[in-house]
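User: For a teaching handout, I'd like to show students what a predicted protein-ligand complex looks like in token form. I'll give you the sequence and the SMILES for magnesium ion. Please answer with just the structure.
Assistant: Understood, here is the input followed by the structure.
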Amino acid sequence: MPTRRIARDTFRFLGLEFSRLDFGGQRIYREDYLKHPEKFLSGIDLIFYVIDAQDFDRYIESIDYLEEILLYFKERQEDVMVAVLFHKFDPQFVDDVEINKRILTLKQALTRYSNHFDIFFFETTIFDIKSIMDAFSSGLSMLFEKIEMVSNLFAEISKNYNTILISLFDAKGITLGEYFRPHLQLLQKIKIYEIYLDLQKRIVSENRTLYEFSDKFENGERFSGIVEVLKFGNLEFFLLFIIEEDEDLQLTVTILDKIEAAKPQMENLIMQIIQ
Ligand SMILES: Nc1nc2c(ncn2[C@@H]2O[C@H](COP(=O)(O)OP(=O)(O)OP(=O)(O)O)[C@@H](O)[C@H]2O)c(=O)[nH]1
Ligand SMILES: [Mg+2]
């Protein structure tokens, strides 16, 4: 169903409460927002601007509208971060030259705003939920100065193993930090994320703190991993750690030990981020 006017709700992330406003995109509403920008736009910290990547004919219209929105913030000297989502970028378009070229042109056109605004781009589709979660996570992360330290730590830890992926999620699935092996394929990412979502649900419903698993990609490559609940203060997180599988079970045990050893460092980081 199309959103009527503005749908508002609140959610918590890293212990802070955020207000979320989903702006209905029909023309009549869009005109209204611009007529009374101080009523609708002031006080906003972060914008997710969603463009229908499949609707080439309306690219210009969409960019023009974004320009008007940004002009408001620029004139008011309000600082706002902007995540532009090229949405409906469905899996069949990943290698489509035409759509990729058009999106690139749009990105180039939009970089002229980067003098005034932090502006970031994402390709998203409902057929890859992770793509949407990544866009929202990266957007939210922009509001926390030191958050990239989590990914840096994971990149550091990953060097000691044949790591495929390390991620730290909050209870709602927002990513605080992530490392994944270079060239990890989209289908492999989607497979991993599906496993994660399933195990995360099971951990919660079975009241567990840890799940170990072992599986394989379509090309036959085996991997093993863990999902573990981490509690820092009164905040709860989920750690996902996946490595290339080794015949040697002892190795998995060592990795669990190493994660155990890295926990104080992670806790320290998270405390710094939310301060
Ligand atoms: N192919 C494809 N269709 C999508 C995707 N995301 C949403 N849609 C479809 O696009 C249509 C519009 O989706 P909405 O979520 O209502 O779009 P919206 O931007 O919120 O629209 P308003 O509420 O009017 O602002 C629906 O039919 C969705 O099923 C996607 O990633 N790929
Ligand atoms: Mg809507």
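For the handout, you might add this sentence: Helices lie at 27-35, 37-40, 59-76, 97-110, 129-141, 148-158, 186-205, 249-274.
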